[in-house]
Amino acid sequence: MDPSKTLTFLLFIGAACTILVDAQTKHKVKVLLTTGDQSKLLSQEPDLHPSPTNGNGPEIVVDKSKQYQRMEGFGAAISNSAAYVIYHSPKRHEIMRDLFSPADGIGVSFVRITMGGSDLQAVPPYTYDDMPNGQTDFNMDHFSVDKDREFFIPIIKEALSLNPKLKILGSPWSPPAWMKSSNSLYGGDFHVDYDGKYQQALSLYFVKFIQAYKAEGIDIHAITIQNEPGYQTTGYPTMTMSWQIQRDLVKWHLGPLFLSNNIYTRILIFDHNWDIHAYPENILKDHDAAQYISGVAWHCYGGDKSEPATFHSKFPNVDNYFTECSGFASAPHFRDNLVWNLDVLFIHQPTVWVKSVVLWNIALDDQWGPQVQVSGCKNCRGVITVPRGSNVYRKEVEYYVIGHLSKVAQTQSMRIDSTDNVDGLRSVAFENPDGTIAVVILNKQDQTKSLNVNIDGNIYHFSLNGKSVVSMLYSP
C-alpha cells in the first residue's frame, strides 16, 4: 500500500476515535442509585453513555427550553435538640461532613433554624429577650443570643465552613412571653395594642436577631414570622397569630423596619399546612403588605400536596418554599418512606413551583429527643440518629432522599421540564449554573423498569429497580 495512503487512513481512524471518545466524555451521565431493599444507598454506578436508539420501556424526555423556578436548596432543620446531639457526639465532625460537605457528604444546601425554643429542646425553652414576670423590653435593651453560643451557633458555623453556599431560614415558635396574651412561651396569642408598640417590638426582635447572627458571620437568608400560626398548645412554645395581625405586622412594622435598617433578608409568611391556604392568600391581597413579602412557607401535615401550584396560579410573583415535614418512627419501612418522601416532597414539590424542600430535625437521638421541659412529638425521626451515650450514628432514609437531590441539583439551579407521572415513574429535572443537567427518577412500582432518558437529544438506557430512585448528572 502507498505509505501516504496508509498514513491518511490511520489519521482518519485516529480522528474518528478521538471524536467518538470526546463525544462520549462530553455527554456522559453520572449515576447515583438507592434501592428500596437497601442494597444500594446513594451508590455511584458506572457512567452512562449515549445510545443510538431507544430501547424498550417508557421514555423520560428532559427539555431545558422549558424553564420554571430557580431552586434554593434541599435539607432539614437544625433545632436545639439537633444541634445538641451533633455537638456532643464523639463523631461530630464526621456527622457534619456527611451532612454538609458537597464532596464527601450529601451537601445539604438549605437549613431552617429555630429562633429560640421549639418542641425539640435539649435545654429549657428560651427566647432572645426573656424578662422577669411583669416586665417588658420594647427597645430590646436586653436582647441577647448568648444561649445560642454554647452549641447552636458552633454547629451552624461548622455547616457553613463545609458548604459556604448554605442558605439559612430562621423561624420562631414563640416570641418573648411578655409579647403574648398568655405571658408564657407555651401557647397564647400575640398581644396586639392600638399604638402598635408590641408589633414594633417583635419587628425589632427580628432585626436584632439578623444583626446578631451577622456579627457571628452567619447570614440569614430568610425568616418566617411565626411557625404554624394556626396552632397553639401548652406542651411546648407556640403562638397563634391571625392573618390580619400578620398582614399588619408586615405592612406597618416589619417591612418598613427591614427597609430602614438595610436588611435584605427575605420575609416569608404563613409557615403552616397546605390546607390553610386562605391565610397567605388573604395577606397577599393587601398590596401594601405584599410589597415586602418574598414568599410563602408550607408544611405537609394537612391538605393537598399540589396546593403550591394552585397558589402560584393566583400569585405568580410570590415564591413558594416547603419548610417542614417530619419522618416518624411509627413508619419504619425504608422502601415505603423512600417512595413517599420522593413522591410527595422531594420530586413533587419542585414540580409545583417550590424553591426549597426542607424536613424537620436534621438529627435526633434514639429516643426522638432530647426533650427538656417540652411535650411535643414523641416519635419524630431525625435525618441522622445519634444514640445516647454512643460513638456511632445512623443515616436514616431521609438522609438518602435529601442526597438524591442535593448532590446533583446545585443552589440556583433552574427547574426544567421532564416527563412525569408515566408508567409509575416520577421525575424532576434541573439545569445547574455550570451547565450540567440533573434528573431524578423514582420508580414507584414493585417491578423493575427499563428506562430511556432523553437529554439534549441523547438517549440513555437504565434499568431501575422497583421502589427505587436514580439521580443522573449529565455533562453537555
TrEMBL record:
Q: Which Gene3D superfamilies match?
A: Glycosidases, Golgi alpha-mannosidase II
Q: Does the keyword RNA-binding apply?
A: no
Q: Which reaction(s) does the protein catalyse, per the Swiss-Prot or TrEMBL entry?
A: a beta-D-glucosyl-(1<->1')-N-acylsphing-4-enine + H2O = an N-acylsphing-4-enine + D-glucose
Give the signal peptide, or none. 1-23
InterPro entries according to UniProt: GH (IPR017853), GH30_C (IPR033452), Glyco_hydro_30 (IPR001139), Glyco_hydro_30_TIM-barrel (IPR033453), Glyco_hydro_b (IPR013780)
Segments forming domain Glycosyl hydrolase family 30 TIM-barrel = 72-407
Which top class of enzyme applies to this chain? hydrolase
What's the EC number here? Answer: 3.2.1.45
Q: What molecular functions are annotated in GO for this chain?
A: glucosylceramidase activity
Location of the Glycosyl hydrolase family 30 beta sandwich domain: 413-471
Q: Which SUPFAM superfamilies does its entry note?
A: (Trans)glycosidases
What's a BP term from Gene Ontology annotated to this protein? glucosylceramide catabolic process
Q: Which GO terms describe its cellular component?
A: membrane
Keywords (alphabetical) are: Glycosidase, Hydrolase, Lipid metabolism, Signal, Sphingolipid metabolism
* Record-linked PANTHER family: GLUCOSYLCERAMIDASE, LYSOSOMAL ACID GLUCOSYLCERAMIDASE
**Similarity-based family:** Belongs to the glycosyl hydrolase 30 family.
- Identify this protein by name: Glucosylceramidase
Source species? Mytilus edulis
